[in-house]
Write a structure and sequence with these properties.
The protein is α+β, with helices and mostly antiparallel strands. The chain has 3 domains: 2-30 and 75-416, no CATH class; 428-586, no CATH class; 596-700, Galactose-binding domain-like (Jelly Rolls), CATH 2.60.120. Helices cover 45% and strands 18% of the residues. It contains 27 helices and 20 strands. Strands 11-14-19-16-17 form a 5-stranded antiparallel beta sheet, with helices on one face. A hairpin with a 2-residue loop joins β16 (646-652) and β17 (655-662). α1 packs parallel to α6 (126-137), α5 packs parallel to α9 (158-171) and α9 (158-171) packs antiparallel against α10. The radius of gyration is 29 Å and the shape is elongated. 48% of the residues are buried.
């Protein structure tokens, strides 16, 4: 009982530390969230969707609520079910915002407490273990993930849990302990795929250390191999538990072009640790965050959560004293190993690119592993190992010293990583979304532009209106047929012109397009540039039959999480500055909907040549997609250019519409066809390559 009371007291210590470091978030559990929004809204949406899937008993890894009408897999999404599960009672009784904040506070609390349990197992010293827990829970890395809204990254506590149980499985092997250790490894997958990878790498490194440690070498090869079998068994158990998700995710990643390339070819290097990052304090620090911003000018465009790798002065001093212990070698080498992995593909110093390849350059080329884009997140393991090294140092310094010295070290650690007041953003929902929630029909909503930095806000608003969204803010931009096929959708997606070979007037077909897909509401946001594009407003106005839109303030001003000077922080939330506008258009259902044409598979990207837009038929075969709300007779008009004479065939399903010699040069093709209601594919096939399309149109015949 005494041991339980002591453990509860220490747990409360870490809970108090979490509340203090994120203050004043605890004052606004139901009205604000820490950080700058954006990814916060995505992770709140994750919790909302998991609850929806649970209530509807549907697959949580697929949602029809995004990428309407096709829906999308969430296997590449940072879904982090662990936060949903741990906060479910709070979600039920107090609502989603409170559950989100509770998850963050709980993650910081458990990260400290379980690191404390690990350090106590390592050092057999409670005071030193308390300090180790503070090192990990107050680390710049972990707190920066809070400001970035990365609840999946704040859920780091399964890492020390897995490390602790692997140590116990090695020392006291049993089937029960092997199974428990394997489950702890697998638990990391519920936080994030990267943490699961890190846990597996840690297990492999731990096995290697046990095989090569000097005390074991003298025992002979077989006894050494036999000693690590419990750790190997735990890894196999975890792989067995996670194999369904691993296989499914690998299959999705294989067919998702952006799985490993999103962000560009240099993205992984940009999201890696620079050597200077290790000694530059977090830009969240209220005293020297501004100084840190200047020192990290070489990463001016990188978000704080992706460039904070500060080891800490106090932590490093403790770790230095910890090196005096022979047992600390494993943890010291672990720090070096995982910092090296966090440095990404190339060694960097204060922005200077050395060209020296690092171990991650090999690791991130492995199958499936290549989908991970943030090497700097290896700092989670580096800080955990550093916390254990600091525990050894604290044990040395605290020997024969009073309890107050422990408190002094804790105070110095907290001051070194201070984040008060923590940046926050209030929950603001424009009233129009409450009106949309009252819409009884099962209709979809298009927020434009839907591929922009405003996209996370649409996820927040969907939590209120609960209608399917065109597009969506997911961890990877997924293949999207609607976007690929229809230029009108690309215009609304990016708030940029969408030149293409489709000749149909967007304003003329707009009501037919949106009605066909049951998209009843178009919302144009000024923050994404929609109100600066007359073309977008013309399309929306035409879709609404010329009716005036409803205008409202769209959002509140957020922090710029790429620099200390851009953070909005105060001990009181106060009245937040509202910015931007949203125009809401209600789509009119046309009495005689028009057919409209889209670009199917087999075409090159649109190219501009001599002032005209063209597409090339690739691999001698391409498709056009024609949508029609009702059966009707139409004429398909295609202007082709052939580099050489060839035979051209055009077919609708099994019916050949045209088969003729296509001479070199320009050739207009006109084909009459009877369209059924729905989606039809017209196939163009050429015997020889070098056929281009300049113009495609569909005209209704009398």
């Amino acid at each position: 009982m005494r041991h339980i009371r002591a453990s509860l007291a220490i747990l409360l210590l870490y809970a108090g530390l979490a509340i203090f470091l994120t203050w004043p978030v605890a004052l606004y559990l139901n009205t604000a969230v820490p950080g700058n929004g954006y990814d916060s809204w995505q992770n709140m949406w994750n919790m909302w969707w998991l609850r929806t899937a649970l209530l509807e008993r549907s697959n949580p890894y697929f949602t029809p609520m995004l990428y309407y009408p096709q829906g999308t897999t969430l296997l590449l999404q940072t879904l982090n079910p662990i936060n949903f599960l741990t906060s479910l009672p709070i979600h039920y009784f107090f609502g989603l915002t409170a559950a989100y904040n509770f998850a963050i506070l709980l993650n910081l609390t458990l990260s400290g407490f379980i690191s404390y349990l690990l350090a106590q197992d390592v050092t057999q010293d409670r005071r030193a273990a308390i300090i180790a827990g503070v090192v990990f829970a107050s680390s710049g890395y972990l707190l920066s993930q809070v400001v970035g809204g990365h609840t999946h990254m704040t859920a780091a506590w399964p890492l020390p849990l897995a490390v602790l149980l692997l140590r116990l499985a090695y020392r006291r092997p049993s089937w029960w302990m092997i199974g428990l250790s394997g489950a702890a490894l697998a638990l990391n997958l519920l936080s994030d795929w990267q943490y699961y990878l890190f846990a597996l790498i840690w297990a492999a490194w731990y096995c290697l250390w046990l095989l090569i440690v000097p005390g074991q070498i003298a025992a002979g090869l077989w006894p050494r191999l036999r000693s690590v079998l419990p750790v190997v068994g735990a890894v196999l158990v975890s792989l067995l538990l996670t194999s369904p998700l691993i296989v499914a995710t690998a299959q999705v990643a294989k067919v998702t072009p952006t799985a490993s390339t999103e962000g560009g070819p240099d993205f992984r290097r940009e999201q890696s640790v620079d050597l200077a990052d290790l000694v530059i304090p977090s830009q969240l620090h209220p005293l020297w965050g501004g100084v840190a911003e200047g020192l990290q000018a070489y990463k001016a465009e990188t978000h704080i959560q992706n460039k904070t790798a500060y080891l800490g002065i106090v932590t490093c001093v403790l770790a230095f004293f910890g090196l005096r212990r022979r047992e600390s070698r494993f943890w010291a080498i672990s720090v070096i190993l995982f910092v090296m992995l966090a440095m990404g593909p190339v060694f960097q110093v204060a922005g200077w690119q050395s060209g020296l390849p690092m171990p991650s350059s090999i690791l991130f080329e492995l199958p499936l592993v290549k989908i991970f884009r943030y090497p700097m997140r290896f700092m989670a393991l580096a800080m955990l190992a550093l916390a254990m090294l600091a525990a050894y140092g604290a044990q040395h310094l605290l020997a024969k010293r009073n309890q107050w010295v422990t408190g002094l070290i804790v105070l110095l650690l907290v001051l070194d990583n201070l984040t008060l007041p923590f940046p926050m953003i209030g929950i603001y929902i424009p009233s129009v979304y409450h009106q949309l929630a009252a819409e009884p029909d099962d209709v979809a909503i298009l927020e434009a532009p839907f591929y922009y930095t405003t996209s996370p806000f649409y996820m927040l608003y969907q939590i209120v209106h609960e209608k399917p969204l065109v597009g969506g803010y997911t961890s990877r931009r997924m293949p999207y047929a609607l976007l690929d096929e229809l230029p009108i959708m690309r215009l609304l997606a990016y708030a940029q012109p969408a030149p293409d070979i489709v000749a149909q007037d967007m304003t003329r077909i707009a009501p037919s397009v949106f009605s066909y897909f049951n998209i009843r509401y178009l919302l144009l946001h000024s923050a994404g540039g929609a109100l600066r594009m007359p073309e977008m407003q013309a399309v929306a106005s035409a879709a609404a039959g010329g009716a005036a839109p409803l205008r409202e303030v769209s959002e509140v001003e957020t922090s710029d999480a790429s620099r200390a000077s851009g953070l909005r922080r105060s001990f009181w939330l106060g009245n937040q500055q509202t910015v931007g506008a949203v125009l809401t258009y209600t789509v009119m259902t046309p009495s005689d909907p028009l057919p409209f044409v889209g670009i199917g598979a087999g075409w090159s990207a649109p190219q501009t040549e001599a002032g005209r837009t063209v597409r090339r038929i690739e691999q001698d075969r391409a498709t056009l997609v024609i949508y029609s709300a009702k059966a009707r007779r139409v004429e398909l008009q295609i202007d082709l250019v052939a580099e050489q004479a060839t035979q051209m065939r055009i077919a609708l399903g099994a019916e050949t519409l045209l088969s003729q010699e296509l001479p070199a040069g320009s050739q207009p093709i006109r084909v009459g066809l009877d369209l059924p209601a729905g989606r039809s594919e017209v196939v163009l096939q050429s015997d020889l390559p070098g056929v281009w399309a300049e113009r495609v149109d569909v005209q209704v015949l009398p």
